[in-house]
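lol forgot to send this yesterday, sorry. struct tokens for the thing we talked abt
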């Protein structure tokens, strides 16, 4: 089985180890795609109020805890791991000051450190040969009945990786 970044692994049996690893890796790729995107796109995809912290947390979740699985399954080589570690170290340094403007969503488009994150993420995507990918974000709302004769609105957010359309 070969990894396909555009495949929706979340619809597969995640109790199968290889599929679970592929799903986690696709979540890492999604996080990198968001990090590489312009600030307003980041907010649109992640949601205002949790954009910066959410991205850092997702990166940490899908990189730090599973990097060895990615390597042993041929998804990452040492050069890419070095770049990912560099980004992880950069984010780790920022985590030391929770009051830093780096974590302020209102400063996302003005903070030069996010330009560094964007550059690092783009470089990693290029090394992975995933620079031709983009993230499609779909939101839908559904109504579910509630016992008190009221309704709960459930928002479902789907982020799917697609190949960019060429401008030929």
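and heres what i got for the seq, position by position
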């Amino acid at each position: 089985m070969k990894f396909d970044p555009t495949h929706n692994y979340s619809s597969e049996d995640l109790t199968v180890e290889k599929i679970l690893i592929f799903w986690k890796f696709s979540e890492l790729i999604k996080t990198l795609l968001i990090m590489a995107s312009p600030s307003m796109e980041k907010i649109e995809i992640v949601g205002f109020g949790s954009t910066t912290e959410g991205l850092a947390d997702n990166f940490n979740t899908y990189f730090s805890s599973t990097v060895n699985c990615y390597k042993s399954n041929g998804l990452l080589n040492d050069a890419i791991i070095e770049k990912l570690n560099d980004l992880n170290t950069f984010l780790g340094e920022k985590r030391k000051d929770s009051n830093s403007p780096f974590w302020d969503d209102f400063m996302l488009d003005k903070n030069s450190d996010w330009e560094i994150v964007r550059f690092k993420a783009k470089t990693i995507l290029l090394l992975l040969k995933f620079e031709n990918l983009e993230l499609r974000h779909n939101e839908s709302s559904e109504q579910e009945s509630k016992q008190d004769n009221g309704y709960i609105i459930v928002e479902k957010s789907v982020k799917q990786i697609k190949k960019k359309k060429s401008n030929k």
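Residues 9-133 form one domain. anyway ping me if u want another try
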